[in-house]
Amino acid sequence: MQFLYQGLAWGFLLAFVPVLIHLINMMRHRRVRWAAMEFLLQSYKKHRKWVWLKQLLLLLARMAAIAILVAMLAQWITRGQWLDFLGGKVTHHYVLLDDSASMSERYGAVSAFEIAGQFLQRLATSASEQPVPQRFTVVRFSQALAGNPTGGGLADMHAEQVDSEFPQRMERLRHSFEVSHAAVGPEPALATLTKLLEEAPDEDRIVYVVSDYRRWQWRQTSRIKAALRKLEDAGVQVRLVQCVGRQRPNLALVDVIPSSETRAAEVPLFLDIKVRNTGTTAASNVAVKIRSIFYDAQATAGVEPDPHVEDLPLLLIDRIDPGATVTRRVQVYFPAAGRHVVEVELPEDALPADNRRWCVIDFPETEPVLVIDGDPDGQNAQFLSALFQPGVHARTGIRSDVKPVSFLRDTTAEQLAEYYTIFLCDLPRIDSVAVEHLEAYVRSGGGVVFFAGPQWAIAAHNAALFRNGEGLFPLLLERDDELPVDELTPAPDVQMVEESHPVFRELTQGANPLIHSLHVQRYLRASATWPTAPNRDKVRVIAKLRNGQPLVVEQAFGNGRVMAFLTTFAPYWNDLALNATVVVALRMEAYLGAGQRPTDRHVVGEPLRVDVDASEFDRQFRWFLPLEDDESYLPLTRNAGTPGSPGRLVGQLEPTEVLRPGVYEVWLKRKRGEIVARRFAVNVDPAESQLAVITRRQMDIALQPLETKFARADAFAGAAVATAGFNRSLFLMLLLVSLLLGEQWLAYSASYHPPKGGSS
């Protein structure tokens, strides 16, 4: 028998007080000889069994009344099946445990996740002290990510019977848990819970949602509220258990972004590092550690990844105000081609999970660009090739591939996709197949730049490339024209409309910008009807001539970009190649080729997928998952599957396998025996760095009109036993009232009453 207030159970000894009073009264009787009593004794002997029975019942009723009153005061809690007809059933405890990244926030020597584990242990201990059976189910938020329709397969503990050894089993289980670092809320766990509840509809069910309850996650509560309402309608008791008390100071690495410059081996690259202060006080003198992690191409011959790690100079940020994000630029360098890694780390603070971030960058040997020159002497191609490949002492990382105009007709989409940018100079007439290939290339993210010249077929290109504003070329042309010299008002020939444009940024700086020294003698004039063309609102004029005519225009086309220079690249219509050619050409390749340099972004809790050609690679994929020490890996060998696309092999890590930030790697074996390594940088979602917690009042407002109980984990500790059973106080009160009424009837029946109307 279990009581909420065990100390009051000693009050059951008071039930013997009526017996004691009866015995005392018996001791007070004296024998008196009286003749008339003989007749009364005969009558008493005749009815004494009935009188004794009534007196015994009266005594037991008084003892029971005292016992019931004590049970009410001590709060009797039952779990037995024998009281099912009164509404009591076996209680099943369902614990939904938050193991997202923000649960790793530390409070001195303990983390929010450890506080949640301690609450779970106290609840298990209280349940084990119950004299009748109970069940326990534990579901972590991260395990529910997989969305297994059976539900039970996602539970760490499913409908386990509670016994005297249960606290020890719970202790081992909770110590095996780790924070997953995924940005996952309660929705997947609540969906899993719905499936689990369907398996045991006849139980009394209590659900504990144990979480840190961050404010950002509970701003949009419509789906959570709908799930909780469904539980409430089903008669399920819900307890929202909060493991965090207040917001603490925290700095977070929110992004590491490679610049859109050319990426190639032996060419330095800038990275932008973003640090956010998610606390309420300013941070000063923040030291940021940066490491370059270089992977030798031959290292894949070993048993696991073996990178070379180099510490770069420390980055110091003077001050970061509360809520502010500071961006700092650093430069990295890798001596050989490959998919290399940059790791950034902040000093230790309340939330270790967001203090490190990784970025995987693909550095090819060179970035190939396609150059097609319609000039019979090939002057444009010569200048471009000389700029991109100046010699052994200067490396740009760009390799020019000069082809004839016919290449655009005879090529394939796969061949064009290998080029980062396509330069089309002084283009003569091209056929429709070449136009289709170019448009498909740009739609998929490629970049194309046109340069005019004497060979430019104006009418043909208006029809094929401009195509009434629907084509690749951004504007309608009229004729080639000469820019007259204006000696009266010596304005610069070239005027920038967008001075901050990435291609021309260096030419517009300073008191005497270089753009003012450029001279243009000839150009292609835009048609007088072009400003009303259907695509006019999609075209940006980057630079214009002093007569107002556009000189450089740009438009987006699909996922790519197109730029058009209405003059030549070679210096026979201008002196561009003699003044700013290097800067413009390099910036143009970097800007237009940005779509061909994707930076993979993966967060914890998302699947990792590899899709390769089945005719080129073996089916067996060898994965390496980072472990906690950051120096070793968990190897995982799997055979790739064949999706709906014929001739493809697909390997994938499931969300529940990507629960730790770091660098994940997969080794693919080509048919000819070569090992190819692919790497993925998996980081914590920056949203997990927002540590502001929701208050009880805010939660009540967010969940209105639900009556869900919300309190801190330590506040629920004292009520753990109460929530483990059903309090029988109401039942006992009804029983006590009934018993007292019966006691009064017995007392009246067992006492002497003179007949009505008789003499006194």
Describe the structure.
By secondary structure, the protein is an alpha/beta fold. The protein has four domains: 2-79 and 729-750, no CATH class; 84-248 and 692-724, von Willebrand factor, type A domain (Rossmann fold); 251-364 and 600-689, Immunoglobulin-like, CATH 2.60.40; 368-596, Rossmann fold. It is 25% helix and 29% strand. It has 16 helices and 36 strands. It has an eight-stranded mixed β-sheet with strand order 19-18-20-21-27-26-25-23, sandwiched between helices. It has a six-stranded mixed β-sheet with strand order 7-6-3-8-9-35, sandwiched between helices. Strands 12, 13, 14, 16 and 17 form a five-stranded antiparallel β-sheet that branches. Strand 8, helix 6 (222-233) and strand 9 form a beta-alpha-beta unit. Helix 5 (187-199) packs parallel to helix 6. The radius of gyration is 41 Å and the shape is elongated. Residues 79-88 and 718-726 have low confidence and may be disordered.
Concise overview:
With 760 residues, the protein is of the alpha/beta class. It folds into 4 domains: 2-79 and 729-750, no CATH class; 84-248 and 692-724, Rossmann fold (3-Layer(aba) Sandwich), CATH 3.40.50; 251-364 and 600-689, Immunoglobulins (Immunoglobulin-like); 368-596, Class I glutamine amidotransferase (GATase) domain (Rossmann fold, 3-Layer(aba) Sandwich).
Main sheet strand line-up: 19-18-20-21-27-26-25-23
Number of domains: 4
Overall body shape: elongated
Which class do the helix and strand fractions yield? alpha/beta
Q: Report the C-alpha radius of gyration, rounded.
A: 41 Å
Tell me roughly what share of residues is in helical segments: 25-40%
Uncertain regions spanning at least 5 consecutive residues: 79-88, 718-726
N-C termini distance: 52 Å
Residue-averaged pLDDT: 85
Number of strands: 36
Number of DSSP helical runs: 16
Strand content: 25-35%
CATH superfamily of the largest domain: Class I glutamine amidotransferase (GATase) domain
CATH topology of the largest domain: Rossmann fold
Kindly provide the name of the CATH class of the largest domain: Alpha Beta
Sheet with most strands: 8 strands, mixed
